[in-house]
Design goal:
The protein contains twelve helices and 15 strands. It has about 400 residues and is α/β, with parallel strands linked by helices. The structure holds benzoic acid.
Length: about 400
């Protein structure tokens, strides 16, 4: 027989349980807009990001913070001229709660402007445009990847340490290429080197021949390149075919050889790059991630898959802190900012400007791997120039 006190306590507990069950049931799926390239030179990068994001959600039983996830997708084609229309499909037509995107810096800059206006939460799973965590920084914009300055700077440190004195750079003429080269130049010249010439071609052109002829004529000590995806495959093969691989060492931010090794084959062997991920990081976290990814998607993961996985981890940390209640945006973003991300790349946290503060590895292409051979810079923050938040 229960005492009156015990009866009251049991009644209260039952009511609380019932109301929390109703709350969890009453919460509709969280609407996640994936704005990524599905076509063009960065198509494979978009696929890897989506795979990584979904892998983390699946590992959580299909829910983040108790909310199931409903996906809405837009192919942004890596085309900045269509970016505002494309992001508005997710913001206005689909009324998504959060947008995850994108790969191309120029597209991401337009997305950042649009979400600042609508106050939609944006998680950037690749695009490195410095302004996103610089002058355009905002409480509703977070990045799970890098700023363009970071891998450029880290590679510049390595090139200077190797004793190279005269460098030429080559890239596509758009934010990612130009800002990565700027980061490289800053570190390389601080380390005693000199960039003698910057070569560019429009994105996403792959007619490299005239520029390779100029490199052959100038004979610098080293060439630094930023290319990614399909463009990186063609560049590395053309560099080799032009006979330059044997005469002028080629270095790059790690995008030059990430997700591309199968297609680059022998032309990529031995290339040195720097990035915030390497295939051969021997931690239980990375090994488990890689094994699950290979089973689920029948291919090897790359840096883009890691960044997609971490975008979902970030969102999950925020939603867990508010038990799935997306109306508690301030508390949610505060948790995303403060919760360390247990990434396959290694643990990291976000800076005040919402950019990863992370290690940059030295990688060397060995077979089908970007093997880790050292650390270029430990715990490298982005300078976040111009961010007022
Ligand atoms: C970018 O446009 O920011 C970017 C694209 C591919 C790889 C890395 C950066």
């Amino acid at each position: 027989m229960h005492t009156p006190f015990l009866r009251t306590a049991l009644g209260l507990a039952a009511t609380l349980l019932a109301s929390s069950t109703v709350l969890a049931q009453a919460q509709p799926p969280l609407k996640v807009g994936l704005m990524l390239p599905a076509t063009g030179t960065f198509a494979a990068l978009g696929t890897a990001i989506e795979n990584g994001f979904k892998q983390y959600v699946d590992e959580q039983g299909g829910k983040l913070g108790g909310r199931s996830i409903q996906y809405f997708k837009v192919d942004d084609e890596s085309d900045p001229s269509k970016a505002t229309d494309n992001v508005n499909k997710l913001i206005k037509r689909d009324a998504v709660d959060v947008i995850v995107g994108t790969v191309h810096s120029g597209v991401a800059l337009a997305m950042a402007r649009a979400v600042k206006e609508s106050n939609t939460l944006l998680i950037v799973p690749n695009a490195g445009a410095d302004a996103i965590t610089g002058p355009l920084c905002a409480p509703n914009i977070l990045r799970s990847s890098f700023s363009n300055w970071q891998p450029g700077f880290a590679t510049g440190v390595v090139a200077a340490q190797k004793g190279y004195k005269r460098a030429m750079t080559i890239t596509w003429n758009y934010a990612a290429g130009n800002e990565t080269v700027k980061g490289f130049t800053e570190a390389f010249e601080k380390g005693g080197g000199k960039v003698t010439k910057d070569l560019t071609l429009p994105f996403p052109n792959v007619e490299f021949q005239a520029l390779l002829t100029e490199i052959a004529a100038q004979k610098p000590d080293v060439v630094f390149a930023f290319f990614a995806g399909g463009g990186a495959v063609k560049f590395v093969k053309d560099y080799d075919a032009a006979g330059l691989k044997k005469t002028v060492p080629l270095m790059g931010s790690g995008f030059l050889t990430d997700g591309t090794l199968e297609a680059q084959g022998a032309s990529a062997q031995g290339l040195l790059t720097s990035l915030h991920y390497a295939d051969g990081i021997e931690t239980p976290r990375n090994t488990a991630f890689r094994n699950k990814y290979a089973v689920a998607y029948k291919m090897q993961p790359d840096v883009y898959a890691v960044q997609g996985y971490d975008a979902a981890q970030l969102l999950g940390a925020g939603l867990n802190a508010v038990k799935g209640d997306f109306t508690k945006r301030d508390a949610m973003v505060a948790a995303m900012r403060k919760t360390p991300v247990d990434s396959p790349r290694g643990k990291y946290t976000l800076s005040a400007a919402h950019n990863p503060v992370q290690d940059f590895y030295i990688r060397e292409v060995k077979g089908r791997e970007n093997a880790m051979t050292g650390v270029a810079v430990k715990v490298l923050p982005d300078p976040a120039r111009g961010c007022k938040m």
